[in-house]
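Dear support,

Our group has been running a series of protein-ligand predictions, and this particular one with NAP is the one our PI (initials K.S.) wants archived with full inputs and outputs. We had some confusion internally about which version of the output was final, so please treat the block below as the authoritative record. The input we submitted was:
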Amino acid sequence: MRIAVLGTGVVGQTLAGKLAEVGHDVMIGTREPRAALARTESPNEWSPAFGAWHASHPTMGVGTFEEAAAHGETIINATSGIGSLDALRSAGADNLAGKVLIDVANPLDFSHGMPPVLSVANTDSLGEEIQRAFPDAKVVKTLNTVTASLMIDPQSLADGDHDLFVAGNDAEAKTRVRDWLEAWFGWKRFVDLGDITGARGAEMFLAMWLRIAASEGYMVNVKVVRPVALS
Ligand SMILES: NC(=O)c1ccc[n+]([C@@H]2O[C@H](COP(=O)([O-])OP(=O)(O)OC[C@H]3O[C@@H](n4cnc5c(N)ncnc54)[C@H](OP(=O)(O)O)[C@@H]3O)[C@@H](O)[C@H]2O)c1
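Confirmed final output from the archive:
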């Protein structure tokens, strides 16, 4: 499948690298390809510099957000939550229309220091903002509640008996995304949060996730315990 991964940070790198490894034709999107490829200094302690990462993945396609979105049959939004709407506007509504848009972003605002706060919450979410801005895209919110390396390796990096949330208006798109996440990365357990308003819960979970990660480390996820079947 031709896949656009919008985002050059650790999430974009991790998802694009794995998707190419399992045989997909991936293009990474960025605001300015030449500037992104020239980066040799890590922006933060958890993101390798994109130029250094690309040097070890030299065949990975890199283009503008628009070029990548035109390339992809499926789009993954792995941009900073604060910049996601601008990034997707640059990608172009026509390049998103009719396609599944997997939104892994969190609307984290670091401008007040650590821990970050959510720039949208309670009665709205980034997933909904994206769906409203691009009504012809099939937005599926998922993967935003786990750290990048766990996204692509849920079975060996943490006990495989844990859950991933999905939310979106298009039931068929959600089913396809679940099937893909199982085939690409090995995800087996999902909790369907319903329509795209379910993104509110998935994004607000970040406040809890940050506290759990501070206590237990980043390689954590939740397991939803189901009722015991009564005989
Ligand atoms: N880090 C994790 O483990 C993790 C886990 C779950 C979810 N997430 C979410 O995944 C997303 C990506 O996280 P990340 O840590 O890989 O990278 P990030 O630093 O949050 O985002 C980097 C990407 O955002 C783009 N960007 C930043 N500001 C922009 C703006 N104003 N307009 C357009 N694009 C802009 C950058 O474009 P350029 O390429 O042009 O610089 C870059 O591609 C975030 O929303 C994050 O909350 C992260």
